[in-house]
Structures are given as structure tokens and as C-alpha cells.
Amino acid sequence: MNYSLIVYFIGRLMRIEAILLSLPLVVSMLFKENAGVFAFAVVMAFAFIMGQALMLIFKPEDKTIYAREGFVMVALSWLVFSSIGALPFVISGDIPHYVDAFFETVSGFTTTGASILEDVEAMSKGMLFWRSFTHWVGGMGILVFVVALLPGVSDRSIHILKAEMPGPIMGKLVPKLKDTAKLLYLIYIILTVLEIILLLCGGMSVFDSLVHSFGTAGTGGFGIKADSLASYSPYSQWVITLFMLVFGLNFNVYYFVLFRKFKEAGKVNEAWVFLSIVLISTITITLNIMPIGEYSGFGEALRHGAFQVATVVSTTGYATANFDAWPALSKGILLLLMFMGSCANSTAGGLKVSRVIILFKSMRSEVRKLLHPRSVTSERYEGKPLDKSTISSVKTYFAFYIMIIFIGFLVVSCDTWTAGSGFNSFETNFSAVVACFNNIGPGFAGVGPWENFAGYNYFTKIILSFMMLLGRLEIFPIILFFAPATWKHSKNKKMK
User: Fold this and answer.
1) Is it the case that residue 170 has pLDDT exceeding 50?
2) Is 384 helix (H, G, I), strand (E, B) or coil?
3) Which of 57, 111, 191, 281 can bridge 220 by disulfide, Cβ–Cβ 3.0-4.6 Å?
């Protein structure tokens, strides 16, 4: 293990976070929020000085990133980023307790959108901006940003992208890794700017357009109003619905479109399956909620149905309606969408459509083997044969996925002394774990779209923060970070 390289890299990240904090500092200055200006300035200075010191003290001789270092860097980077990012909330007094601030910041960077704030509208503009900006930074990935912008990053850093990018298959779109990262961020920025422009055209203010576009792009969902997006115009709701789905699609599609490879774009089966599921779910929920009498007609029911499907399947977490009060069929569909999530290589969370497809193909193959033991069959995905290692890795991930959800649920259910607010119910605790692990945000009952996570005790909030990190980094980087074998010295350099 190259400890000097890891610490040096963390120092570099701390300097980057200091630079990122300058944006909310400017916002606080524009709105004349002295507490925010002081908080951001202090944390900026601390992060930059500490980062510079670490880089000077722990300058490594060998800067080659092997798989082991890559996984450790990813896990440690997200922990450090979240730990420092929570400090402005505490120093400014907007979120006085550090555990609450840490929960909110982890929720931001992991693009979960779960909140402990009971009165979000009381927060200062600078803190609201930082809170939503963490979504945008975390959406594409902290270290994808590093690979794209920093000099001296080699193709060995593919271990970083593999550990951080969501989905079962992580490849390079173009020959050089650095160019892949730059291309991903170029697409990300173009789509974000386009959404900001469209929201401005609908009459939304500059500040509101920025924070909601950050939340949509990162599929995070931190709102700045108590009712999330319910009080905004139908036009704004439709724009955000569209872009939640846009950012939930596999970014390979946009790469093909950008370079006019339209046939290749049309052959991304995962995208078609994803859009088909969205369409069927939207129509079913729309027809299911129309009879309840809350909406004036098909158009309004369709808007709310489409929005809630998009926000859940993309794991964004915005809301225009209290879907916790909807009929059981609609809630059941939304719960299933919480588990599935969106496409691989998107900014969304969840199990991913690609894994669901591969699992179903694997199940079909096993049934065929039972019926025809001597036959030799080969399943295909995206036009290519599915190799055994990919199927095995998906099955292993799914096993860990289910196990972690149930362990998390049992641990959270131990929070028995948060009496009086419904936090002891099965629906609340189970949906809280599912929502945090899949980086969705709101769940049902006590943590529904109009509720928050403030009622849980500090221990449970730390557990749920850990669940968010596990979900965003897709389990293995966090597990490997805490595994003793990861830190043992390896005689074989290639195994590092």
C-alpha cells in the first residue's frame, strides 16, 4: 500500500474542496450573510492550508495508482469531502450539531437528498447554494472531476473511475482515460446549463434555477422550499421531470449522439428498457390516482404521476405531491422503482437497470439449463455475449445489496427511543434504509416527501450516512476500505 500517495492525493482533494467553497462564499457575500461569509472563509483557509501541508509532507516517489490504492482513495475521499463540507453548516449556526451537518453533507455529495432540516426556508442563501452544489459535485463523482482537470493523471486511474462510477461495466469512451473524464463532464455541464436556461425561460429566479438544476443534474433533490417543487409552475415541473430522466439515462447515449453515431445510440438496450418502464409506470400510476379526487383531470394527474415516477426512478427525490397518501398500487410501483433506479453510467443511484436486465437473463438461462441440460446457450447484452465474470459480479453485488438493506433495517429498527413521531414503524424504517442506500431521499410514512429524518437519534443518522456512502460507491470501495486485508503489505506489486 502506497500510503504517501494516498495522503498526498487527499491533500490535493482538500485544496480542490477549498476552491469549490469559494462559490457559496460569493453567494453569501452577494446576499450580505456575514455568518455564511465567515464560515466559508474559515473552512476554505483550513482546507487549503491542510491540503497544502499534506502535499508537502507526503510527496510520493511512485505515483502509480493500483487497484488497492484506487479503492482506498475513493472511499477516503468521499469521507474527507463530507467531513470538511459539513463544517460551514456548523460554524454558521444553520445546522448547529455536527452529526446533523455531516448527515446533510453526505446526503448532498452522495446525491441522496435525505434531510434533517425541519424548516429549510429558514436557511441562508449561501448554505442553500452549498447544499445543492454538493449534489452537482457528487453527481458525476468527486474523483471523475479530479481525473478530468488535474495534470499528471495517467490511465492507471481507471481503478478510480471503476470504483466511483455506478454500474456493472465501466469502460473508456475514448482511448485516453483523461479524455473520457473530460467528455463526461462536458456533457454534464452542457445538460446542466440547458436546464438552467429552460427554467429561467419559465420565470424561475436565477438562484432557484441554479439550485434546482444542480439537484436535478446530480439526481440529488435538495429543495429550498418546504413543499419541494409543489408551489412552482407546471412548466417548471415538466422541465425538471424531463431532465431527471435525462440524467438517469446512460451517458454513453449522449456520447454517441454528440459524435453523430445515432445507430449506436439506438442500440443501447438499457436506455429503451428504462424508458419503457418509466412510460408503463407513469400511465399505471396516472390511472390509479385519478379516482382519488385530488386532481382536476387527466392532465394534472399525468403531470404528478410522471414527476413522481421520474423523481423516484432517477433517485432524485424532489416532490410535487405527497405520494405517501396515494393508493397502494401506486406506492408499490414507486417502491419497486426505488430498488431498480436508473441506468448504469448515469448520475442516479439504485440497483441499476443494467443489473436488473442481466439478472433476468441469468435467471432465464438457468431455467433453460433445467429444461435442456445438454444444450449450450449464451446470453447477450448490448449486442455482446455476457461473460461469466460479469454475470458472477452482478449476482455477488445483488447478494450484498439485499444483505446490506436488511442488516441496515435491523440496525435502524433498534432506534426505539425516538418515540412519538412514527419512527418505530416498519414502513418508516424500511423505506428510510431503502431511500438512503439507493440515494433517493424521501421514503414513506415518517420519512415521506413532506417529512424529514430529524427524528432519528445521532447513532441512526450515522448509520444512514454510512448507508448513503455504501449506495453511492456501490458497496465495495467502502467494504474494502474497512477490510484488514486491504491494508496488508503485498509482496506482489501487481496486486496492489
Assistant:
1) no
2) strand
3) 111
Q: Give the model's pLDDT for residue 110.
A: 93
**DSSP-assigned beta bridge partners for residue 87:** none
C-alpha cell at 437: 442506500
- Strand-pairing partners, residue 381, are 384
Task: Find, among 66, 58, 72, 63, the residue nearest to 11 by Cα.
Answer: 58
Three-state SS for 61? coil
Look at 84-93, 127-136, 281-290, 343-352 and tell me which has the smallest mean pLDDT. 343-352
At 175, is the pLDDT very low, low, confident or very high (cuts 50, 70, 90)? very low
In terms of Cβ atoms closer than 10 Å to its own Cβ (0-12, 13-18, 19+), residue 350 is buried
Compute how many other C-beta atoms are within 10 angstroms of the C-beta atom of residue 460.
21
Q: Please report, for residues 186, 227, 236, 275, 341, the alpha-carbon distance to residue 200 in angstroms, rounded to integers and kept in the order given.
A: 21, 20, 9, 27, 29
Extended beta strands in 368-450, E state: 380-381, 384-385
Query: Which positions ≥6 away from 158 have C-beta within 8 Å?
Result: 170, 172, 177
**Contact call for residues 103 and 55 (beta carbons, < 8 A):** no
pTM for the full model? 0.90
pLDDT over 90 at 121, yes or no: yes
CA angle 462, 7, 21 (to 5 degrees): 65
- 314 Cβ partners below 8 Å, 6+ apart? 219, 244, 245, 247, 248, 341, 342, 346, 348
Cα 159 to Cα 190: distance, rounded to the nearest angstrom: 26
- Average per-residue pLDDT for the chain: 86
382: left (phi over 0), alpha (psi -120 to 50) or beta: left
The grid coordinates listed for 485 are: 486485508
